Amino acid sequence: MPRGTELHGLNPCERLEACIASIKEFHADAEMCFITGDLTDQGHRESYDDFREILQLLPMPFHPLIGNHDHRKIFSEVFPEVPLDKYGFVQQVLDTSLGSFLLLDTVEHGKHWGSYCEKRGEWLRSQLETAGNKAVYLFMHHPPFKIGIPRLDRISLREDAQRIQQIVSNFSNIKHLFFGHVHRPVSGSWHGIPFTTLRGTNHQIQFDLNAKDYLPISHEPPAYCVIFLEPQQTTVHFHDYLDDSLYVKIPSTKE
């Protein structure tokens, strides 16, 4: 939301600034930052302008992915350096020493549920083929599967989930899938691919398995994740950066 405005009784700009302040204090040595969307609530240009200004505080490169609340065209105008694929979708590949990071665009413009059309699937298949035997890490907004909260499952990737599943099933080098959208800390595996998502930096979705006709918004603490990647291990730490509970440093003892 634009500066000075609230969303569900909270101030998104202030909470994002607090998130970045925590990252700068404790994790300034991170190599890069991924933001899996949503980036704004209503896709307004003013919101993107404020969002971009806040992100400049990060000490490392950042890579934003759009979500269902975003506006692809306005986002690309405010973030012209973020690559698009040949069809105009916000998709890119980052080649690193640890493997290829594929950033997917799952947005169906004007809808809360996601999609992944044949054109986007063509890009994904091509990038996976190009990666060869290198490790691949997938980043997207909508999960391509159900998580068990009915109201959220209605706005997942729906029928296009099968397209992604059919594509990735032909590749055994996909190490992990990271996504946003659900505002919950959730992990598991999908067709053998480990996955992780987390709470947002503003409001959350309560753990309500009966939520069919409503979104159970909550004020649970916001979080970010710190990810350690190694050739044979992926470690994901969740940090509730506004948790003000007291902690005590206990002196170490001999083992």
Summary, kept brief:
The chain has 255 residues and is of the alpha/beta class. Helices cover 23% and strands 22% of the residues.
If you had to describe this structure to a student in words, what would you say it looks like?
The structure is a single chain. The protein is of the alpha/beta class and 255 residues long. The chain has a single domain, classed as Purple Acid Phosphatase, chain A, domain 2. The protein is 23% helix and 22% strand. It is built from 6 helices and 12 strands. A hairpin with a 2-residue loop joins strand 7 and strand 8 (193-197). Helix 1 runs parallel beside helix 2 and helix 4 (118-131) packs parallel to helix 6. The longest helix has 15 residues, at 12-26. It is globular, with a radius of gyration of 18 Å.
Mean pLDDT: 96
Strand order of the largest sheet: 3-4-5-6-8-7
Shape: globular
Overall number of domains: 1
| Residues in helix, % | 10-25%
- Number-wise, the strands total 12
User: Which structural class should the secondary elements be placed in?
Assistant: alpha/beta
**CATH C-level name:** Alpha Beta
**Contiguous runs where pLDDT drops below 50 for at least 5 residues:** none
Total helices: the number is: 6
Distance between the termini: 51 Å
Strand content: 15-25%
**What order do the SSEs take from the amino end to the carboxyl end, as H and E?**
HEHEHEEHEHHEEEEEEE
Largest sheet: 6 strands, mixed
CATH superfamily: Metallo-dependent phosphatases
CATH topology: Purple Acid Phosphatase, chain A, domain 2
Cα-based radius of gyration, to the nearest Å: 18 Å
